[in-house]
Amino acid sequence: GAPTISIFLKPPGLIAPGGSTTICCSCQCDSGNFVLYKDGHQLRTLEPRGSRAEFSISNATGEDTGAYSCHYLEGGTVLARSETLDVRVQELRLPKPVLSVLPGPEVAAGTYVMFRCTIAHSSAGCFLYLEGQVQAFNLPPKEHDFNLSHVHKSNEGRYSCQCFTRNVSFQWSAVSRTLDLVVR
Questions:
Q1: DSSP labels, 115-167
Q2: What's the pTM?
Q3: What domains can you pick out in the chain, each with its CATH number?
């Protein structure tokens, strides 16, 4: 079968103007190149280091906002395309939330785990990010809790959260400090 590519932001979340992030493309591929596209236009080509290529965005501006994807090419032939990653650059006006995990950052497989994203704003909604995943988990307003009932090795990783308000326009917080979940 054709190889599959994953695309994700490191660190995940919205980027403040002047901030930086890295678009990571990874693939269990052989000896080709990654090509980064933005809004359907080819931007850059990179040879992978190991199974991944990293495209850096520094001193971000509104121009960096867009829909990014990676193509994997061998000998000029596109073998695989990633899903689309939306990158947004916007002023971060809310206070930085605090992410915590109960019962703690190291748990046994099968344990019940709760992530809590705390922000000093009553009507904020929040997203929980797992590094390496495109999709964020949408946390319900007010509680900002995300429950995993039977954790397993695939839930391991580096988590962070980011909050927003939906009044006249969206306002965003910075991304919380990261928290590493280890499943034994």
A1: EEEE-S-TT-EEEEEETT-SSPEEEPTTT-EEEESS--GGG-EEEEEEEEE-S
A2: 0.84
A3: 5-87 (2.60.40.10), 92-183 (2.60.40.10)
